[in-house]
Write a structure and sequence with these properties.
There is one protein chain. The longest helix has 23 residues. It contains three helices and 14 strands. The protein is globular and about 50 Å long. The strands form four sheets. A six-stranded antiparallel beta sheet has the order 6-5-2-13-12-9. It is α+β, with helices and mostly antiparallel strands and 279 residues long. A hairpin with an 8-residue loop joins strand 10 and strand 11. The chain folds into two domains: 53 residues; 214 residues, no CATH class.
Length: 279
Amino acid sequence: MTTMRNSFKIANKMLLTMGATVIAGGMLAGTQPASAATIKPGPPVSGNESLQEELDNLAGDGNIDAVDDQTGYEVFTTTSTGASAVLAFENSALANDEEFGIYKPGSTDPDDRVTLIDNTLGPTSDIVPGDGLQGFHLAPDGNGNIDVVDDDGNLVNGDPDAENFNSTDFGFFLNQTGTYFDNTFYSEASLNPGGKQQSLIYQGNEHGNTELDVPGLLNNRTFEDTDMIVSFEDSEFIDDNFNDMGVVVSDVEPVPEPSAMAALGLVGSVIALARRRRQ
């Protein structure tokens, strides 16, 4: 019996250590997904600014580190107030062939995408920071469906795909519709060719001591923890500088991936089992 009790003690310690490791390892809601890897952005194309320089322009020198402050978030939902997206920077030679928006998680079907910022509507020379401020809400339509609507309650940009979106969660996409490239990249790396990460996402400061500066729109806006900077790389294989299109999305929250929720359940089971062993 003594040997058995000692075995239970050892098992209890192992279980509790496992629970602590899961928590400390960042497996709970709102932390970096296990699939995300920290990426060092490549140098900019000649004449453009690097991602770090763009982040410094937005939030002041050194307030956001292009490498250390990557969140790895992939899927989001809006807060109770709805959300908005605005172009923050653009360094792509393909700028006027690109669209930014939200899509239904796990889906690469074009019908499951809703465009928020459409750079294809004008020449590259007209694309400047502050363009395309677009409010959006995930709103029940009264018939059991969920639409993506603007601040006036209309379908965003009149997009028919905004009707019956039917998801309260979403990822971000960058779509190219040009002559030479026809690609769509997603914030969920698993949906991209080769499972390659194509976006880097940065979260606002919970202490509210960082301010954003997007010319004409977000001057001196406090960078809150419900604000994200979404920066896309628009090529599979060329430079990986991740400075091609940057968008500030406000009033959104990360959604934990299923493995994080499973880990949370595991922690609860570990603690419950350990308590039973003590009784």
